[in-house]
């Protein structure tokens, strides 16, 4: 497969709108995006990465109202963390809506949602119009890429499109917080520290 390298967000968005996948920059690492509601596209992303299906993907949104397209409920702790840290390097895990394919969440009844702060990511997501499921844009087992050149080394010939942007500013993955229980629980440490989270929800 020929891989289009482009710096035009509309080219990458049109790859997803037509049922394909594309790598895109965010402030943490580059992601490999698919329409969250397009099961075949999501599966294509897993194949391109060689990723095992038991690892859930993060769903990326451009606007707050899109959260309810994938989350059945926004718990109070999630609401506060979203208010404090979106857009930014935080992924909030909430109960999922049945419309979200099981392949996105690895069969879990929860969904992780993040709103990137990166302007190119925001423009790309806005042009897509749907929430975008994305793992990091590397071959499984390799480090998460912070530049389009690293994405190219791993995935050229395996994906139809790479949206080029600047080097990822944060370079560390998003912090993942489970907000489905009585108190929020950090599932994966990342760019936002436990201290940051506790300033907003002290019981984290
Ligand atoms: P990656 O895209 O490679 O950064 O991996 C996404 C990571 O987000 C997963 O490995 C999980 O740690 C986390 N994650 C995403 N969705 C969920 C979820 N519903 N429940 C728990 N963890 C999640
Ligand atoms: Mg990864």
Description:
By secondary structure, the chain is α/β, with parallel strands linked by helices. It has helices spanning 9-17, 39-49, 67-70, 76-85, 102-105, 119-128, 148-155, 194-200; strands at residues 4-6, 22-24, 31-35, 58-60, 90-95, 110-114, 132-134, 161-163, 175-178, 185-188. The strands form two sheets. It has an eight-stranded mixed sheet, with helices on both faces. Strands 1-8 form a two-stranded parallel ribbon. β9 (175-178) and β10 form a beta hairpin. α1 runs parallel beside α6 (119-128). Magnesium ion binds at residues 135-136, 144.
| Beta-strand percent range | 15-25%
How is the biggest beta sheet arranged? 8 strands, mixed
Q: Please trace the helix and strand order, writing H or E for each element.
A: EHEEHEHHEHEHEHEEEH
Low-confidence residue ranges:
none
Question: Topology of this structure?
Answer:
Elements: E1 4-6, H1 9-17, E2 22-24, E3 31-35, H2 39-49, E4 58-60, H3 67-70, H4 76-85, E5 90-95, H5 102-105, E6 110-114, H6 119-128, E7 132-134, H7 148-155, E8 161-163, E9 175-178, E10 185-188, H8 194-200
Parallel strand pairs: 1-8, 4-6, 5-9
Antiparallel strand pairs: 2-3, 3-7, 4-7, 5-6, 9-10
Helix pairs in contact: 1-6
Bound molecules: adenosine monophosphate and magnesium ion (MG).
Adenosine monophosphate binds at residues 55-58, 91, 93, 105, 108, 110-112, 135-136, 173, 176, 187-188.
